[in-house]
Every structure is written in C-alpha cells, then in structure tokens.
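Narrative summary of target 7.
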Amino acid sequence: MLPPPIVTKRAIQQTTTLHNNHTILNGNEKQLNMIKGDTTNINQTPSTYLFDKEIGLNPSEQLKKDMLLELQDINRPWTLWFVRIINNHSGRLHLRYITNTTEDEEEDSSLDIHIFCLDRRVHFIGWQSNNSSVYFYDIPTCLKLITIDKEKLIDICLSQSKKQFLASNLFKEQEEIIKHRFTEGMKLEVFESNKQNIHIGRIGHIHNDYYFDIIIDNDDDNNTNELSFIGYSTHPHILPAHWAAEHKLALINGENIRQTKDYWNLYTEKNGIENLYTEKNGIENLVLERCFNLITLNAAGNNRVEPGMKMEMIYTLNNKDYVFSVTLIHIADHLMWLRIDDTSLFNDDKLFYHVLPINSLDVFPVEWAKFNGFDLITPIQYQTIIKTYEQNRYE
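Modeled conformation, tokenized:
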C-alpha cells in the first residue's frame, strides 16, 4: 500500500488561511480567484512546495514508508532488485527485499538492509532502464535459495512504482561510479577488512567497464581458498604498490608473513621487470598510479581530522542500528582507524576497531545522533576512588 500524498506544514497553513478567510497572500489575486472559483483541489499541495528548498521537504524526507526503490546487489553490483522502505529515520533507510507477488504474504525480514539514502547502491525505480547497457534486474545472491517468480515480480513492482513520485534529482549527491582503467592480472595492494591488514593482491576478472574482481594472493600454485571481492574505480580498499610502506604499515603476503619495505623493488628485480609499470614475459605489471581514484575531502588533500578526535559511528547489529561514540586513533590518506568507546555490545573483539574511508556515510561529527533523534552509546565512564590523608590516616 502506497503512502498518502505528502503535504508540508506551511502548505497546509497557507491553504487553510485562504479557504477560511478568503484573504490574499503576497498580493496574489490570481490564486485567490482560483480558490474561490474551484474548491475541488483545495487540499492538494502544489508540487512546487514539495521540492522548494525553503518550504518543502528535503530529499531524505521525500522517501516514505512502503515506497519502492531499486538496490544494487552487494556481491553483483551490476544487478538490481526491488526493495520496500520499512522505515526512514533521518535518511537512514530500513529496506526489505520484495519476494512475494501478493501483499498478504509476509516477506522475510532476516535479510533486511540498513543503509543511507545517498549510498551508491540505492536508486529510484527506473534507474536500471536508464542504464540498461550495464545493469539489469536479477534475484540478489542472498535470496538464491528462495523461490521467486522473477518476471512477475518485476512487472508488479514497475506497475506499483507508477503510483509514487520521486524527484529525478533525489539521489544526485550519490558517489558516481566512473569507468575504470584496470586490466586483468595487474598487481596492487589490498586492504582486507576482516583482519584489517594490507595484502598483496591483483586484479581478477573484468566484469564490465565499471566492476572487476579483486583477489588477495595466497601464494598457492592451485589458487585455492583465495579471498576476493568486487571492486570499482574509487573503491577505498584498493591501493597502489608501495602504499603500505609509505604509510609505515605492514604489507602481508599470502602466507600471512610480513614483507620488507622494498618488497616491490625486489619483486621487479626477481621477475626481470625493468620498469615497475610495464609487463615483460607475461609477468603481471603493477597498477599505474593514474588508474587509482583515491578519495580526499578536498583538492588540497587536507583531511581535517587527526588522531584523538571523537566521532560518532552508526553500525547495524542484529538488524538494529546503533550509534557509537568512537575515537580516531590513526589516519592514512583516505582511511581512518576508529576504536569503539563502549564495546559492551560486541562479543567479537575484532569489532572493537573499524577502518572506514573519510567519505563513509557511517561516520559523523559529535552530536549527530542527538540532532537526528538516535540514541548514542556513550563512552564507558570509569569511577575512581581517591584516598586522601587526614590526620595521618586513610579514610
């Protein structure tokens, strides 16, 4: 069921005043005559009110409960599927995949997604048709075990979406995925988020002009049990050769052994490569610096953050959003190492620390939670009993 028409508070006040008192607002006699002559549409809000920056709704407020959106699959981002908005809390969307052809059947909530509306994966219905040369509808990888009538659901969702209206520029502030310049086999450094180490890796299969596989080397001749994920041109976890050494971080090989700072120089000498960025005798070349699009907060490269700063970070735990107080403990270029100040909700000590890019939609300045109506899990407060001398005796 679709939500009722959106009406702004100011629009209601103006319409009510005109209807009851027949007064002229801002000298607009034409508006008065229209209302006097035809009152059938008096309670309908003019579309200009909805998107006026001063009196209308901001982009996040236009996304209402039960509206449908398109969401890119996290494992196959060139495919999209339909999701329903379960809740919108200050732009933080609680989304649920559409899996049933009738509204009587309840949809599975165990695979719900909590994501901000400006995340690069979220789109309005019809975005796929505008980019059909690369993207197409398909069942998400997390739903492969569920029986879904794919074509019927596509028709139903597209039909239902015609009853809702979203501004075409609603998601214009999203990160744009640009074409990459990588080729299969290129060597590079990769940040692995689970162990939070920097590994030696390579470019794997090229899926299209925008997405490719990133493979972490394991020094196994059979290439078994290799870790891989989908990358794109601005992915924060793909790094050029020498990046770890330049930032005084360890570079780990496939056997989890720390490498020396001159690893890449030794690599080129060993394989007879005269230039770091050329290919010789079939040996994989290193990725050219110009292929990377590492993010910064501004053109000058000034990140405006430094170790010791307090921030707030949103994290989904057991299908619920929590906002934690965090401390910035290290920063290297575009990556921030954050420590959770109160870890009482985590059973895994690996979750005490998080490494996020500086443009992450999950990190905010102090008091963001208070301003947006989220409960903040504050730092642990330690109480210390101080003993003092009084009459040469302890109390």
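Residues 9-21 form the longest helix (13 residues).
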